[in-house]
Amino acid sequence: MSQVSLLHQAKQGDANAILNLLNQSLAFKKVQIVVATLEDNCLQLKLEGKHGQVPNQHKLIPFIKEEITSLRLEIVHKLELEASVEGSDTAAWQASITLDEHTNRIAEFTHILSAKTDEIEPEEVSLELRAKRGEVAAILELLNQELEPKDIAAELRLDRGYLQILLEAHYALVQDKTVESIRNKLIEARLPLVKKVTIYAKKTDVNIPLWHQDFKNSNKSISNNSLDSSGNSEPTHQPESSSILNKFFNRNLF
Protein backbone atom coordinates (compact mmCIF):
# COMPACT_ATOMS: atom_id res chain seq x y z
CA MET A 1 0.00 0.00 0.00
CA SER A 2 1.33 3.45 -0.94
CA GLN A 3 2.01 6.13 1.66
CA VAL A 4 -0.88 8.24 0.40
CA SER A 5 -3.22 5.23 0.65
CA LEU A 6 -2.01 4.57 4.19
CA LEU A 7 -2.78 8.16 5.18
CA HIS A 8 -6.23 7.92 3.61
CA GLN A 9 -6.99 4.64 5.37
CA ALA A 10 -5.70 6.02 8.68
CA LYS A 11 -7.98 9.05 8.45
CA GLN A 12 -10.89 6.68 7.80
CA GLY A 13 -10.13 4.90 11.07
CA ASP A 14 -8.07 1.93 9.86
CA ALA A 15 -6.12 0.97 12.99
CA ASN A 16 -3.60 -1.10 11.03
CA ALA A 17 -2.80 1.88 8.78
CA ILE A 18 -2.31 4.07 11.86
CA LEU A 19 -0.02 1.40 13.33
CA ASN A 20 2.12 1.31 10.17
CA LEU A 21 2.43 5.10 9.97
CA LEU A 22 3.36 5.48 13.63
CA ASN A 23 5.91 2.66 13.45
CA GLN A 24 7.66 4.49 10.61
CA SER A 25 8.16 7.46 12.92
CA LEU A 26 9.18 5.24 15.84
CA ALA A 27 12.01 3.57 13.92
CA PHE A 28 14.69 5.50 15.86
CA LYS A 29 13.01 5.10 19.26
CA LYS A 30 13.90 1.41 19.82
CA VAL A 31 10.20 0.72 20.28
CA GLN A 32 7.42 -0.55 18.07
CA ILE A 33 3.63 -0.71 18.21
CA VAL A 34 2.52 -4.33 18.03
CA VAL A 35 -1.24 -3.89 18.45
CA ALA A 36 -3.51 -0.97 17.53
CA THR A 37 -7.29 -0.80 17.90
CA LEU A 38 -9.68 2.10 17.38
CA GLU A 39 -13.11 2.07 18.99
CA ASP A 40 -15.42 4.95 19.90
CA ASN A 41 -12.72 7.46 18.89
CA CYS A 42 -10.29 5.88 21.37
CA LEU A 43 -6.99 4.67 19.90
CA GLN A 44 -5.45 1.87 21.96
CA LEU A 45 -1.79 1.12 21.33
CA LYS A 46 0.36 -1.65 22.73
CA LEU A 47 4.06 -0.78 22.58
CA GLU A 48 7.06 -3.04 23.01
CA GLY A 49 10.59 -1.90 23.76
CA LYS A 50 13.33 -3.57 21.75
CA HIS A 51 16.56 -5.11 23.06
CA GLY A 52 15.16 -5.54 26.57
CA GLN A 53 14.52 -1.82 27.07
CA VAL A 54 11.41 -0.39 28.71
CA PRO A 55 9.78 2.24 26.43
CA ASN A 56 10.45 5.74 27.75
CA GLN A 57 7.07 6.99 28.97
CA HIS A 58 8.01 10.65 29.32
CA LYS A 59 9.34 10.86 25.76
CA LEU A 60 6.89 8.57 23.97
CA ILE A 61 3.61 10.10 25.16
CA PRO A 62 4.26 13.62 23.76
CA PHE A 63 5.93 12.12 20.68
CA ILE A 64 2.92 9.96 19.79
CA LYS A 65 0.51 12.83 20.51
CA GLU A 66 2.48 15.06 18.14
CA GLU A 67 2.55 12.37 15.45
CA ILE A 68 -1.22 11.90 15.64
CA THR A 69 -1.63 15.66 15.33
CA SER A 70 0.72 15.86 12.35
CA LEU A 71 -1.21 13.09 10.57
CA ARG A 72 -4.46 15.03 11.19
CA LEU A 73 -6.33 11.99 12.49
CA GLU A 74 -9.54 13.76 13.45
CA ILE A 75 -11.17 10.46 14.36
CA VAL A 76 -8.84 10.01 17.36
CA HIS A 77 -10.08 11.82 20.49
CA LYS A 78 -8.43 9.69 23.14
CA LEU A 79 -5.24 7.64 23.49
CA GLU A 80 -4.70 4.59 25.67
CA LEU A 81 -1.14 3.30 25.76
CA GLU A 82 0.28 0.12 27.26
CA ALA A 83 4.03 -0.46 27.15
CA SER A 84 6.11 -3.51 27.89
CA VAL A 85 9.47 -5.05 27.09
CA GLU A 86 9.55 -7.22 23.99
CA GLY A 87 8.63 -10.79 24.92
CA SER A 88 7.09 -9.85 28.27
CA ASP A 89 3.38 -10.17 29.10
CA THR A 90 3.64 -7.70 32.00
CA ALA A 91 2.94 -4.03 31.32
CA ALA A 92 5.72 -1.67 32.40
CA TRP A 93 3.36 1.31 32.34
CA GLN A 94 -0.02 2.45 31.07
CA ALA A 95 -1.37 5.87 30.17
CA SER A 96 -4.68 7.39 29.12
CA ILE A 97 -4.71 10.77 27.38
CA THR A 98 -7.61 12.92 26.18
CA LEU A 99 -6.75 14.84 23.04
CA ASP A 100 -8.93 17.95 23.28
CA GLU A 101 -6.01 20.23 22.43
CA HIS A 102 -5.03 17.86 19.64
CA THR A 103 -8.52 18.11 18.10
CA ASN A 104 -8.39 21.91 18.20
CA ARG A 105 -4.93 21.98 16.58
CA ILE A 106 -6.12 19.70 13.78
CA ALA A 107 -8.94 22.12 13.03
CA GLU A 108 -6.40 24.96 12.88
CA PHE A 109 -4.09 22.98 10.57
CA THR A 110 -6.96 22.07 8.25
CA HIS A 111 -7.99 25.71 7.99
CA ILE A 112 -4.42 26.87 7.35
CA LEU A 113 -3.65 24.21 4.75
CA SER A 114 -6.87 24.87 2.84
CA ALA A 115 -6.48 28.65 2.86
CA LYS A 116 -5.53 30.27 -0.42
CA THR A 117 -4.06 33.39 1.13
CA ASP A 118 -0.41 33.93 1.98
CA GLU A 119 -1.06 34.77 5.60
CA ILE A 120 1.68 34.15 8.16
CA GLU A 121 1.48 30.72 9.80
CA PRO A 122 0.67 30.73 13.54
CA GLU A 123 3.66 30.04 15.75
CA GLU A 124 2.17 26.79 17.06
CA VAL A 125 2.24 25.26 13.56
CA SER A 126 5.81 24.03 13.60
CA LEU A 127 8.03 23.87 10.57
CA GLU A 128 8.39 20.11 11.02
CA LEU A 129 4.63 19.52 10.98
CA ARG A 130 4.18 21.63 7.85
CA ALA A 131 6.93 19.64 6.15
CA LYS A 132 5.20 16.38 7.10
CA ARG A 133 2.05 17.65 5.44
CA GLY A 134 3.99 17.99 2.21
CA GLU A 135 4.51 21.77 2.11
CA VAL A 136 7.41 22.27 -0.28
CA ALA A 137 8.30 25.62 1.30
CA ALA A 138 8.64 23.96 4.71
CA ILE A 139 10.74 21.10 3.33
CA LEU A 140 12.97 23.64 1.61
CA GLU A 141 13.38 25.60 4.83
CA LEU A 142 14.44 22.44 6.66
CA LEU A 143 16.99 21.59 3.98
CA ASN A 144 18.28 25.16 3.96
CA GLN A 145 19.38 24.67 7.55
CA GLU A 146 22.04 22.39 6.06
CA LEU A 147 22.57 24.11 2.73
CA GLU A 148 22.68 27.86 3.40
CA PRO A 149 25.81 27.75 5.61
CA LYS A 150 27.55 26.07 2.67
CA ASP A 151 26.37 28.71 0.16
CA ILE A 152 24.18 26.21 -1.66
CA ALA A 153 20.89 27.30 -3.22
CA ALA A 154 18.09 24.79 -3.69
CA GLU A 155 14.84 24.42 -5.60
CA LEU A 156 12.32 21.64 -4.93
CA ARG A 157 9.43 19.87 -6.54
CA LEU A 158 7.21 17.27 -4.82
CA ASP A 159 4.79 15.22 -6.89
CA ARG A 160 3.06 12.02 -5.73
CA GLY A 161 5.75 11.08 -3.26
CA TYR A 162 8.63 11.97 -5.58
CA LEU A 163 10.85 14.80 -4.31
CA GLN A 164 13.23 16.40 -6.81
CA ILE A 165 15.95 18.72 -5.54
CA LEU A 166 18.08 21.03 -7.67
CA LEU A 167 21.22 22.31 -5.95
CA GLU A 168 23.33 25.18 -7.21
CA ALA A 169 26.63 26.53 -5.88
CA HIS A 170 29.54 28.60 -7.17
CA TYR A 171 31.80 25.60 -6.58
CA ALA A 172 31.61 21.92 -7.56
CA LEU A 173 29.59 20.07 -4.94
CA VAL A 174 31.08 16.84 -3.61
CA GLN A 175 28.48 14.21 -4.39
CA ASP A 176 29.02 11.78 -1.51
CA LYS A 177 28.99 14.40 1.24
CA THR A 178 26.15 16.41 -0.27
CA VAL A 179 23.84 13.43 -0.73
CA GLU A 180 24.66 12.09 2.73
CA SER A 181 23.85 15.45 4.34
CA ILE A 182 20.50 15.86 2.56
CA ARG A 183 19.44 12.25 2.98
CA ASN A 184 20.11 12.25 6.70
CA LYS A 185 18.22 15.53 7.07
CA LEU A 186 15.20 14.00 5.32
CA ILE A 187 15.39 10.92 7.53
CA GLU A 188 15.58 13.11 10.63
CA ALA A 189 12.51 15.05 9.47
CA ARG A 190 10.47 11.82 9.03
CA LEU A 191 8.47 12.97 6.00
CA PRO A 192 5.78 10.34 5.34
CA LEU A 193 4.78 11.77 1.96
CA VAL A 194 8.30 11.59 0.48
CA LYS A 195 9.08 8.13 -0.88
CA LYS A 196 11.72 8.75 -3.55
CA VAL A 197 14.28 11.52 -3.99
CA THR A 198 16.42 12.72 -6.89
CA ILE A 199 19.16 15.28 -6.26
CA TYR A 200 20.68 17.28 -9.12
CA ALA A 201 23.78 19.44 -8.62
CA LYS A 202 25.16 22.18 -10.85
CA LYS A 203 27.55 25.09 -10.71
CA THR A 204 26.27 28.62 -11.02
CA ASP A 205 26.06 29.83 -14.63
CA VAL A 206 26.64 26.31 -15.98
CA ASN A 207 23.68 24.80 -17.80
CA ILE A 208 24.62 21.13 -17.53
CA PRO A 209 24.34 19.45 -14.10
CA LEU A 210 27.53 17.91 -12.76
CA TRP A 211 25.78 14.85 -11.33
CA HIS A 212 22.50 13.50 -10.08
CA GLN A 213 21.52 10.75 -7.66
CA ASP A 214 18.34 8.84 -6.83
CA PHE A 215 17.46 7.15 -3.55
CA LYS A 216 14.48 5.93 -1.60
CA ASN A 217 13.55 7.93 1.47
CA SER A 218 13.86 5.27 4.15
CA ASN A 219 14.38 5.33 7.92
CA LYS A 220 18.00 4.22 7.65
CA SER A 221 20.77 6.77 8.07
CA ILE A 222 23.77 6.58 5.75
CA SER A 223 27.46 7.30 6.14
CA ASN A 224 28.19 7.07 2.41
CA ASN A 225 26.17 6.87 -0.78
CA SER A 226 27.35 3.60 -2.24
CA LEU A 227 24.74 1.51 -3.97
CA ASP A 228 23.26 -0.97 -1.51
CA SER A 229 21.80 -4.37 -2.21
CA SER A 230 18.23 -3.11 -2.14
CA GLY A 231 18.92 -0.39 -4.69
CA ASN A 232 18.17 2.41 -2.25
CA SER A 233 20.94 4.62 -3.60
CA GLU A 234 21.73 5.03 -7.26
CA PRO A 235 24.69 7.38 -7.81
CA THR A 236 25.19 8.89 -11.24
CA HIS A 237 28.41 10.84 -11.70
CA GLN A 238 28.30 11.79 -15.35
CA PRO A 239 26.87 15.19 -16.38
CA GLU A 240 23.23 15.22 -17.45
CA SER A 241 21.54 17.23 -20.14
CA SER A 242 19.69 20.28 -18.87
CA SER A 243 16.66 19.18 -20.90
CA ILE A 244 16.15 16.31 -18.44
CA LEU A 245 15.81 18.75 -15.57
CA ASN A 246 13.48 20.94 -17.57
CA LYS A 247 11.27 17.94 -18.20
CA PHE A 248 11.11 16.98 -14.52
CA PHE A 249 10.52 20.48 -13.21
CA ASN A 250 8.21 21.44 -16.09
CA ARG A 251 9.94 24.77 -16.56
CA ASN A 252 13.23 26.27 -17.67
CA LEU A 253 15.35 26.39 -14.54
CA PHE A 254 18.46 27.55 -16.30
UniProtKB/TrEMBL annotation:
Q: Where is this region: Disordered?
A: 222-242
- What spans are recorded as compositionally biased (Low complexity)? 222-233
> What is the superkingdom listed in this entry's lineage?
Bacteria
What this protein is called in its record is: Uncharacterized protein
